[in-house]
Amino acid sequence: MKTSKTIYIKTSTKRILSKNVFSLFALLLMTSILTTSCNPDDADDGFQNDVPPTAQEFADIRDIAMDNHTQMFNFDADDGYISLTSENGVEISINTNCLTDNGNPVTGDVTLEYVEIFEKGSMLTTNKPTMGKLPNGDKTLIITGGEFFVEATQNGTILDTNCGFQLMIPTDLTGGPDPDMTLWTGEIDADGNLAWDENEENANGDGGLFLEGENYYGIIDGFGWTNVDKFYNDPRPKTTIQVQPPAGYDNQNSAIYLSYDGELPALAQLDTYDATLNIFSEHYGQIPIGLECHVIFVSESEGEWVYAIKPVTIEENAIITFYLGETTVGSEASLTALMNGLP
Questions:
Q1: Any idea what the CATH number is for the domain that residue 333 is in?
Q2: How far is residue 186 CA from its own chain's centroid?
Q3: pLDDT digits over 293-332, tens only?
Q4: Does some domain include residue 303?
Q5: Does residue 9 carry a pLDDT above 80?
Q6: Hey, what's the torsion of the CAs at 148, 154, 157, 161, to 10 degrees?
Q7: What pLDDT score was predicted for residue 191?
Q8: Same domain, yes or no: 140 and 284
Q9: Are 147 and 186 in contact (CB under 8 A)?
Q10: Cβ of 155: how many Cβ atoms within 10 Å?
Q11: Same-domain pairing of 222 and 258
Q12: Domain range holding 313?
């Protein structure tokens, strides 16, 4: 911007005063324009919406993602021991004679609802991150060999099984066999967020999971969410981080995730929120200092995903801010592809 310059010429005092006032006005106007344009919230090429989504609208788009990942199988409760094969080659083996409805044996047609998740993009859109509980109740990242949901129903009633079932999971779906993997059970809290508890060792000492050749075999006690996992391990000092979403967005109509570079089958989530400060937090102090990662903000707009992805190197007590002008609107498929393409 050119600076103003006073030129001394032979003129009246009134004309000099008029010119200086005009220059001051022009300078203030230019300063105002530059200040406004530096705010990413006002970026012309970003998503702009003065009305953030409701909590229900955000939940609905996640439900659509879950429906897109759900596979349905039908069988007769009198079929006995059956084996079903998923789209990715996971085998679900169930003894149908073990199915019960309120303790009573089941007969007739049964529907099996099944979900399998192996990649970051699917973890994000379905809100199924890999956050494992430590013995003290804190949560930290776990590396997955696959997340699975299995549920049997009859006429809309959820059934039980009194002898469990088996999953045979090809290890090439998550990068090959890993003897450190164990079996975990998922629990969804009142806010709809999923966390994982490691299964206790059983009489065989394998916790219900064993590795044979190129497959994991999981012996599952009951229906619900199951995960093949291990704790993420990084010796570097740890810290907490905070992330601020755009104005009008909170933990009801948006979410914040962390993708660790170099850890493909895993996705962390900032699951605590301070409504006073409008801050999402990882308050457990489990993020390695110096970690290279990507921080992801997601929400919804008119049935589409709103998102922004930032590459970050974690610093101690880092605070990361998202502005609405940084976000993009896209489909589930485009967001999934971006997530799966992260390092």
A1: 2.60.40
A2: 15
A3: 999 999 999 999 999 999 999 999 999 999 999 999 999 9
A4: yes
A5: no
A6: -60
A7: 85
A8: no
A9: yes
A10: 9
A11: no
A12: 234-340
Fill in the amino acid letter for 49.
Answer: N
Instruction: Decide if 156 is inside a domain.
Output: yes
SS3 for the chain is: CCCCCCCCCCCCHHHHHHHHHHHHHHHHHHHHHHHHHCCHHHCCCCCCCCCCCCHHHHHHHHHHHHHHCEEEEEEECCCCEEEEECCCCCEEEEEHHHEEECCEECCCEEEEEEEEECCHHHHHHCCCCCEEECCCCCEEEEEEEEEEEEEEEECCEECEECCCEEEEEEHHHHCCCCCCCEEEEEEECCCCCEEEEECCCCCCCCCCEEEECCEEEEEECCCEEEEEEEECCCCCCEEEEEEECCCCCCCCCCEEEEEECCCCCCCEECCEEECCCCEEEEEEEEEECCCEEEEEEEEEECCEEEEEEEEEECCCCEEEECCHHHCEEECHHHHHHHHHCCC
- Residue 39 forms part of a structural domain: no
Residues 210 and 151 in one domain: yes
Residues 2-21, mean pLDDT to the nearest whole number = 37
Which structure tokens are listed for 96? 């149908």
Q: Which of 180, 207, 231 is the last residue of a domain?
A: 231
Q: Which single residue is written with the structure tokens 């809290």?
A: 189
Cβ-contact 169, 107 below 8 angstroms: no
- Could you tell me if 190 and 333 lie in one domain? no
158, 267: one domain: no
- Per the structure, the count of domains in the chain is 2
**112-162 per-position pLDDT tens digit:** 999 999 999 999 999 999 999 999 999 999 999 999 999 999 999 999 999
Give the residue from 231, 257, 284 where a domain finishes: 231
Which residue's structure tokens are 């930290």? 140
